[in-house]
Structure formats: structure tokens, C-alpha cells
Write a structure and sequence with these properties.
The complex is a heterodimer of chains A (467) and B (225). Chain A is an all-alpha fold and 467 residues long. Chain A has helices at residues 6-37, 48-79, 86-109, 117-122, 134-158, 163-180, 189-223, 228-249, 262-273, 275-291, 299-322, 326-332, 336-366, 377-410, 415-423, 425-454, 461-464. The mean pLDDT of chain B is 96. With 225 residues, chain B is mainly alpha-helical. Classes of the chains: A mainly alpha (467), B mainly alpha (225). At the A-B interface, helix 2, helix 4, helix 7, helix 8 and helix 9 of A face helix 1, helix 2, helix 3, strand 3 and strand 4 of B. Bound molecules: protoporphyrin IX containing FE (2 copies) and fe (ii) ion.
Chain lengths: 467, 225
């Protein structure tokens, strides 16, 4: 194993936790999907609300941990030096992991509290994605500041701010600042959801999107050898397009929550343009790969880069566009359409990014000087994940259209309309497919784990040191 | 679609374009710095517009300012009607209708609603239901739950309650006992005080002007009681 920077060792810590939490996400997702089919399963023991909350919270945490790992990994190569506070970095990791552990245990064993502020501070805030209790919110912000300090101190010590790092530093600050928008209580549900979307939307459709722009740009430089000048030019263009459309695109969540009517126009207009940067990213990745005639030292990373570009475009761009105009969203809002889109977008844009980094790291650890990182099993995991994700998303798309039509258009969106639509075979049968493809996804994950454990290990020693 | 949105769209794009052009004078569009400056201008302009709109929205969505009715609306009868001007549905206040046989003062009502909101958060209702259309898809949307015809048609007889609000309290305290299909809501151990507060909250929420969501609530061609 090549000597690692301290910064890269911290990256390994983050990725280890991230990969475990990925598994936990899938496990709870499967339980939640099974509860749709058999609502008696764990009824009263581990209700759907809890399994679902664990599913999406595990996702948010593991994706963020992967991003942090990616940042620690690229830091030495971008700054030319090791991280300034190695101990601080490990401490932050330890605190974050411990806090996540405590929160999860409370979710599973305490689950709910009474309607008072004690619950909000110590059990749950009960707001989708950011259910974590207030103490953990504050802890997370403190840890983020530690990480931020570490990154910024390293950059300044090195005296060299590359374009990638400049974008990264500003974006991280915005990302952390937005989290604070989701931390207070108000009885006014309209304003509650107004700020809640600042966190959720301005994360996934603005700051996270730019963050993966940085990570993928760096990855392209290292997997394909694209020149920095081109990468940075594209990155600025992406920042312009992502922030230029995504910030006011926030309005697509302000159609029906009690906010003024002008959001229908503003949100509809800007969010419809949000796919543009995602097209630009595909052009960028495909063009770069073409220029290099697909020659790479890291095949799994390259293929996951493609998946990221296309997955982001289809999941966020196409699936998002499908229901983003107010005239459509009036009926599809809050149906399985959103779940279909959410799965493909998160998988394409963010899961894929993290897996790219896993393979870049593995190459560095196991085959730093070639020949190339490759195996048969990564292809199985890759194709398996694509098929099962497309299967789940396709199933939910059918369910979503049918739900929109029966419950919202023909029906009157009431309790009984909901039940009737849910029992329609076009809605209920896709839930079976979703579960089936979910099992396939879990199996693909296991293959991925196996590949992570083995890829690059059996390279004949003659090939490791080419002349 | 109401006024104002086109002006915002045009102004934000125009300022970005003009500002970016001025700051990149003499630079070729093939240079990274050209896009860097445009990116900075574009992001700042859009964020500035978001802030302005945020202040305006917060003002217009303050409690009692029209779109979000005053807490005392829980003492009134609420309806949901097609608004001829916009072509979309809108809540209307139709006269007095005390809740649990009581007329609440503003302070009492506010206290009740705070309790209701805290209860909703403490039980994670949003990870099964949607509220104002946001949340999870395992259970019905609760935006207009107060206006749901099923309370009168099925739940009052089933729970043996005298009024709609009483039936709602009984259901919320024992959803396992009064289940109406195989996908049951679990008993979340709401106290009677909490359940009443939630009912008040649902009534208040049904009176929020949501620009017409859900469309034609309660007028179903799918379900006939
Ligand atoms: C990688 C980027 C994206 C991710 C990860 C993502 C994820 C999600 C998720 C998880 C939801 C459901 C939120 C909830 O739980 O209530 C959602 C909702 C939504 N997304 Fe995205 N999204 C992305 C990009 C986009 C884009 C580019 C568009 C538009 C072109 C879009 C349009 C929408 C709309 C309209 C909704 C609201 C659905 C409803 O009314 O119920 N999304 N998104
Ligand atoms: C084993 C595979 C998986 C299964 C069976 C599964 C199942 C589910 C279920 C049942 C829900 C609840 C939806 C509802 O409220 O009705 C859900 C929500 C969600 N899942 Fe998954 N999931 C899986 C994998 C993933 C992956 C890989 C991701 C992305 C990284 C993901 C992201 C999400 C998101 C963002 C939501 C919230 C959607 C929304 O609110 O619109 N899931 N999932
Ligand atoms: Fe969004």
C-alpha cells in the first residue's frame, strides 16, 4: 500500500461508515417497501414512519459522509500538502459517527415523544429528512465547522487556491449555512415548510449539485487526465447554470403551501431550466471520454462517471421536469411521482458520485502504478444496480401516474379516494415490483461490497511495476 | 397566474446579463475567468432576488394576514369553493361553528395550535402522511382532512361520536381500533389533550389558501358513499 496522507486516512474513515450506512439505508428501505405490501409487518413494533425515516436519514448521512471523505481525499492533491489538523479531523469524524449512532438508537427504541419541546430537543423534530433532534443539529453544525476550519486552514496554509477549491469553499459555507434554516420551530406550517425547503431543495438542487460538480471535475482530471483549464471553465459554467436556475427554482415547492401566487410563475419558469446544466454535464463527460478514446486507468470509476452524468440528467432533469410545471404539479404533488423522481435523482447524482470516489481510492490503494483497475464483479454490481433502480423507478412512475389520475383527477383527493386509488392494480401491483427490484438492488450492493473487498488485489506482481 | 412573476423573471435575467457583460468586458468567452465572473454575478443576483421574495412571502404568510387565517378561524365554519376569477379552489369562512362546543379566544386558540403542531412533529405524522402535499405517501394527504366527507358518512357512526371533531379525536387516539382498511395507522398514544389540539390544527390548516391544492377536494367521481 502506498503511503497515505493523513487527510486520505480520514477519507477512509468516512467512506467506511458511509458504505455501512448505505447498507442500512437499503435494509430499512426494503422493510418500508414490504410494509406497503404487508402492512401488518412489524405493525406497532417498527412502524412505517420509523423505517422510512431511517431509510432517508441513513441516505442523507452516508451521502454527506461520502462527500466529506471525497473532500479529504482530494485535498492533498489540490493543495500539495497534508491536512493541517489531522487529529481534529479524526475527532470530528468520531463525534459525527457517535452522534449518528445515538440518534439512530433513539429513533429505533424511543421512536416518538409527547408534543412538547423536550421531544424536539432530544427525540425527533418530526420534519422529513431533518428529523434529527435539535441537540444533534447543533452538534452537526459544530462538527461541520471543525471540518470546514480544517479544509480552509489547509488551503490557506498551502497558499494556493485552485478554481476547484475556491468553488468548494464557498459552496460548503452555503451548504452548512442552509442547514441552520431548518432548525427552528414555528406553529405556522406554511413558514415551517417554506424554510424546510430552503434546506432540502437548496441542498440537492443547488449546493450539493455544485459540490458534486467539484468532485466530478476532480475525478475527470484524475481518471481521464482532462486538463485543469477545461475542467475549471466548465465548472464555472455549471455554477452559473445551477445557481442561476436552481435558486429561484426553489419556487416549484411554493405552489401549494400557502405562499403567494407569484411563485407559480417564478418556480415554474426557473425550475424548467434546471435540466440545462445537467445536459451540460453530460456533454462535458462524454466529450472528455471521447477525446481520450475511453482510455483510462480506472474502468469502474469511468463507468460510474458516465452513470453519474446520465443518472443526474434523467433522475433530476427529466424526471424532475415531468412534474415541475404548476399545471401538472397541482395534481401530481405528493404522489408516488415524487418518490419515483427522488429515487432516480439521488441515485444518479449522488450515490454514483460517491462510488466513483470509492473506486478512485481503491485504485490508489491497490494499483497505484497500473496496469488498470478492473474486475468482472464491478460490472455485475453496476448493471445490477442500474436495472434494479430503473425497475423501482419505473414501477413508481406507473403507480404515480395512476395515483395522480384516479385519486386527484377523477377522485376528489379525499381519504377514501386515496384508499381506492391505492387499491387499484395499477398502483398496488407496482408496489410488488418495487419490492422485487429492491431485493435485486440489495443483492447488487452485496456484489459491490465483494468487489470493493477484492478488486485490484489479484494483479500479478510483474504487471504492478511496468517498465 | 397573478402578477409580478414575469417582472421578477425578466429583471433577474437582465441584471445578470448586464452585470456579467460589464464585468467580463474584453474577455473571451473561452477563458475560464469569463465564466467565473458570470457565475458570481448570476449567483448573487438570484440569491438577492430570493431574499427579497422571502421577505415579501414571510409578510404575506404571517398568521392572520389573509392567506394563513387567524387562529380564531377554528371557531368558524370552513368551506372550499371554486373561485371564478382564478379558476381554482379556495377556502371560505361560512359563519360560526364552535369547536368542541367552545369558542376560543385568540390566545387560547394559539396555544392549542402550538400544541397541535408540536404533537404532529413529535409523532412524525409527516413520515406517513403528506401535509400541504409534503411528506410521505403511505397515508392520505391531510391538507383538507378537516373537510373530508368520510368523517360524517362513516367515522361518526363507527366511533359512536356525536360530532365530527369528537369522531376525529376518537380515531386519532385509537386508529388501530377504528381502522378502515388493511393499511392501518398505528396507535401513537396521543393523549386526549393532544388529539384535540391536532384536530384544531387540522381545522386551521384546511383554511389556509393553498392556491387551489388539492383541486376539487371532496368532489369525487371515484368514490360514492
Ligand atoms: C439531484 C437533484 C435532485 C434530487 C436529489 C431531487 C430529489 C427530490 C426529492 C427526494 C423530492 C421529494 C421531496 C419530498 O420528500 O417531499 C423531490 C421533489 C421534487 N423535485 Fe426534485 N430532485 C432533484 C432535482 C430536481 C430538478 C432538476 C427538478 C425540476 C426540473 C425537480 C423537481 C421536483 C419537483 C417539482 C418536486 C416536488 C414534487 C411534489 O410536488 O410532490 N427536482 N425532488
Ligand atoms: C432496496 C432498495 C430501496 C427500496 C426498497 C426503497 C424503498 C423506499 C420506500 C418504501 C420509500 C418510502 C416512500 C413513501 O413515502 O411512500 C422510500 C423513500 C425514499 N427513498 Fe428509497 N428505497 C430503496 C433505495 C433507495 C436508494 C438507493 C435511494 C437513493 C439514494 C433512495 C432514496 C429515497 C428517497 C429520497 C426517499 C424519499 C422520497 C420522497 O419523499 O419522495 N432509496 N424508499
Ligand atoms: Fe426542488
Amino acid at each position: 500500500m502506498e503511503r497515505l496522507y493523513e487527510s486520505q486516512k480520514i477519507a477512509l474513515l468516512y467512506f467506511s461508515v458511509a458504505i455501512v450506512l448505505f447498507g442500512a439505508q437499503l435494509l430499512f428501505g426494503l422493510i418500508a417497501a414490504y410494509q406497503y405490501i404487508n402492512p401488518d409487518f412489524l405493525y406497532g413494533v417498527l412502524p412505517f414512519s420509523i423505517t422510512r425515516m431511517l431509510h432517508i436519514n441513513a441516505m442523507i448521512v452516508w451521502l454527506l459522509m461520502g462527500f466529506i471523505g471525497g473532500i479529504y481525499w482530494l485535498l492533498p492533491s489540490e493543495t500539495g500538502m497534508d491536512v493541517v489538523g489531522a487529529k481534529l479531523g479524526k475527532l470530528a469524524w468520531f463525534l459525527l459517527t457517535t452522534a449518528v449512532g445515538i440518534v439512530v438508537l433513539v429513533y429505533i427504541f424511543k421512536q416518538i415523544g409527547h408534543g412538547n419541546f423536550f421531544t424536539i430537543w432530544f427525540i425527533t423534530e418530526g420534519r422529513e429528512y431533518i428529523e434529527a433532534p435539535r441537540w444533534a443539529d447543533i452538534g452537526v453544525v459544530a462538527v461541520m465547522l471543525m471540518i470546514y476550519f480544517n479544509v480552509i486552514a489547509t488551503v490557506f496554509r498551502s497558499g494556493r487556491i485552485t478554481g476547484l477549491l475556491g468553488v468548494l469553499l464557498i459552496d460548503l459555507l452555503a451548504l452548512a449555512g442552509l442547514y441552520i434554516a431548518g432548525m427552528f420551530f414555528t406553529p405556522n406550517i406554511t413558514q415551517d415548510q417554506f424554510w424546510w425547503w430552503w434546506v432540502v431543495h437548496l441542498w440537492v438542487e443547488a449546493t450539493w449539485e455544485v459540490l458534486v460538480g467539484v468532485l466530478m471535475g476532480w475525478a475527470l482530471m484524475h481518471v481521464l487526465g482532462t486538463p485543469r483549464r477545461i475542467i475549471e471553465g466548465w465548472l464555472y459554467l455549471e455554477v452559473l447554470l445551477v445557481f442561476g436556475t436552481g435558486i429561484l427554482g426553489l419556487g416549484h415547492h411554493y405552489y401549494w403551501i400557502g405562499t403567494p401566487e407569484y411563485w407559480l410563475g417564478i418556480g415554474g419558469f426557473f425550475s424548467s431550466l434546471e435540466p440545462i446544466p445537467l445536459v451540460a454535464m453530460i456533454v462535458h463527460a462524454v466529450y472528455d471520454a471521447g477525446v481520450h478514446k475511453l482510455q483510462t486507468v480506472n474502468r469502474p470509476a469511468l463507468f460510474w462517471i458516465f452513470l453519474q452524468a446520465f443518472g443526474n440528467f434523467f433522475g433530476a432533469g427529466v424526471w424532475g421536469f415531468m412534474h415541475t410545471l404548476p399545471q401538472i404539479n397541482l395534481y401530481s404533488h405528493g404522489t408516488q411521482m415524487a418518490a419515483s423522481h427522488g429515487h432516480l435523482a439521488f441515485f444518479g447524482a449522488y450515490v454514483a458520485t460517491n462510488i466513483v470516489f470509492v473506486y478512485i481510492i481503491l485504485q490508489h490503494l491497490r494499483a497505484p502504478e497500473g496496469p488498470i483497475l478492473d474486475s468482472r464483479t464491478w460490472k455485475v454490481a453496476y448493471i445490477g444496480m442500474i436495472i434494479s433502480m430503473v425497475g423501482m423507478v419505473g414501477a413508481l412512475l406507473v403507480a404515480g401516474f395512476a395515483q395522480t389520475f384516479f385519486e386527484r383527477a377523477v377522485g376528489g383527493a379525499t381519504w377514501q379516494d386515496y384508499i381506492t386509488a391505492q387499491m387499484h392494480p395499477w398502483v398496488s401491483v407496482p408496489y410488488l415490483w418495487r419490492f422485487g427490484f429492491g431485493v435485486l438492488f440489495l443483492l447488487s450492493y452485496l456484489v459491490l461490497l465483494y468487489d470493493i473487498a477484492t478488486i485490484g488485489k489479484r494483479v500479478p506482481s510483474v504487471e504492478v511495476k511496468p517498465a | 397566474m397573478g402578477s409580478g412573476w414575469i417582472e421578477v423573471v425578466v429583471a433577474s435575467l437582465l441584471i445578470t446579463l448586464v452585470g456579467g457583460t460589464i464585468l467580463t468586458r474584453g474577455r473571451s468567452w473561452l477563458e475560464p475567468v469569463f465564466w467565473k465572473r458570470f457565475a458570481i454575478v448570476g449567483s448573487l443576483v438570484m440569491f438577492a432576488f430570493l431574499w427579497i421574495l422571502t421577505f415579501d412571502t414571510l409578510r404575506k404568510t404571517a398568521i392572520g394576514k389573509g392567506r394563513i387565517p387567524d387562529p380564531t378561524v377554528i371557531n368558524r365554519k370552513i368551506g372550499y369553493q371554486l373561485d371564478a376569477d382564478t379558476g381554482r379552489f379556495k377556502p371560505v369562512v361560512l359563519g360560526d361553528e364552535p369547536l368542541f362546543g367552545k369558542t376560543y379566544t385568540r390566545e387560547e386558540a394559539m396555544k392549542l395550535l402550538v400544541k397541535g403542531k408540536l404533537t404532529i412533529q413529535s409523532r412524525n405524522c409527516m413520515d406517513c402522511h403528506t401535509l400541504l402535499g409534503n411528506g410521505a405517501y403511505y397515508a392520505p394527504d391531510l391538507t383538507k382532512a378537516w373537510l373530508d366527507p368520510k368523517w360524517e358518512k362513516i367515522m361518526i357512526p363507527m366511533t359512536g361520536a356525536k360530532t365530527k371533531e369528537e369522531a376525529m379525536v376518537r380515531f386519532l387516539m385509537h386508529p388501530d381500533k377504528y381502522a378502515t382498511w388493511t393499511r392501518r395507522m398505528p396507535n401513537l398514544h396521543l393523549t386526549e389533550e393532544e388529539a384535540k389540539a391536532v384536530v384544531a390544527y387540522l381545522k386551521w390548516m384546511s383554511a389556509i389558501n393553498t392556491n387551489g391544492f388539492p383541486d376539487h377536494f371532496g368532489q369525487s367521481k371515484l368514490v360514492k358513499f
